[in-house]
Amino acid sequence: MGYPTQEKLAYLHDLEKALQSIEGCSSVTLPFLDQTSAETLKNGLPWIFTQQKVILDDGSEIDNPLLHYKLQTALADTALIDGYDYSKPEGYQTVRYPLSGLSGTEEDKKSAEEHNKQFDYDKQVTLLNSNVRNWLTSQQTAVADKYYQCLQAPNYTVFSNTTSAGKWNKDHTGAPLIIPLENPHNWMHLCIGGFTDSKDGSVRDPIVYTVGSNGDMGENETAAFDPIFFFHHCWIDLVFWKWQQLHGATTLFDIQQGYPGTNTSDTGVQVNADQNEDEELNIDSPLHPFINQATGALYTTRDVINIENLGYSFGPNSLDSFQLPTDDQQADSLKGAVVLKKRLEVRGINRAYIKGSFIIAQYEIIDGEKQYVGAVPILSRWNVQMCENCQYHLDVQAYFEVENLEGVPSDKRVFQTQCVTRYGTQNLPSVFRTESYSYEDYSCQILD
């Protein structure tokens, strides 16, 4: 429930203060990567993230520090089971789509080297920027539009996390689908970290995985080592602030007590080591482990609601002109919505048995043809089974809007869910099994 206020402290405020503490850097601020600007939608990532060299004010040329990061010490995967080894050696340089950074085993290293030989520098940049543009603008993924959609979330609880938004979407089938901030946030992690759109531009099967690709932004363990991570999260914080401005919540907002996603025992809630199970969360719950230096106490959400209290603001950006629809506009958009759209719920996918991040791609079979419905990105870990905090949110749920097929009962419609993973695509329902798991709890149904 601390997301996104905890990320504000973890990745942004404390880092910016640390940078400003360096001699000669007192005026340094963290920039944001504007992901709905005309330039980004047209060109992909700004050149500063992809250029190999940069020229400083004194005319000297250096390696671009925003292209990648070199690990100063080895990153050891201490939860080794069944060949799950996400270790990275000292000196490893972070990579982005379409490259692979797997190096935990000799086999991984060899496969990554062979895979990466396919792409010279120019091809890497071209493919990466193409992927970013496509994810943001294509009709099938429309990530840029999802940023605008999440700004329309009616309250902080459903805006802030996927679990709460899922409950809202299940209970409000006649209203527009709520998109939580986590959704477009996760899309961009996976976009830069190795998932791509269909190479042939297929609209029926648009979600694929480039076999062999494994960028660091695409996995929780290593995402923060890629320099672009912080620019992405500054943007997420900006979207959060824009939501606050639009909803009159710049000085105070509430967390709906008892709502799914607001208790430490709920699926999808991040739990800290010193928190108890079945603990209700509110705006005064401590944001571990971040200490307010002025008081000596742990920060709370209440402390960080108003960014002016933290001493920063945002410069001009592409969301400045966005306004919420008026009541009349909302009424017009809802005309016939109950008749024309149905709410589809997918649940029972346990991410503990899926190696790494993945995408839930949803289809409907109509007249023998597979028709694309939508997709949801799941930012995960290479090995979830050995992550204690992850055990609180293993079950993945997703909600989609589907057309109302006149004369066809809901229970007669045929749906297919695909889990697009790092090691292939699994169709559900199916006989897909690992040695210890099958998708026996999987369900996909229309909520009438």
From TrEMBL:
<dbReference type="InterPro" id="IPR002227">
    <property type="entry name" value="Tyrosinase_Cu-bd"/>
</dbReference>
<dbReference type="GO" id="GO:0016491">
    <property type="term" value="F:oxidoreductase activity"/>
</dbReference>
<dbReference type="GO" id="GO:0046872">
    <property type="term" value="F:metal ion binding"/>
</dbReference>
<keyword id="KW-0479">Metal-binding</keyword>
<dbReference type="InterPro" id="IPR008922">
    <property type="entry name" value="Di-copper_centre_dom_sf"/>
</dbReference>
<dbReference type="InterPro" id="IPR050316">
    <property type="entry name" value="Tyrosinase/Hemocyanin"/>
</dbReference>
<dbReference type="Pfam" id="PF00264">
    <property type="entry name" value="Tyrosinase"/>
</dbReference>
<feature type="domain" description="Tyrosinase copper-binding">
    <location>
        <begin position="226"/>
        <end position="237"/>
    </location>
</feature>
<protein>
    <submittedName>
        <fullName>Tyrosinase</fullName>
    </submittedName>
</protein>
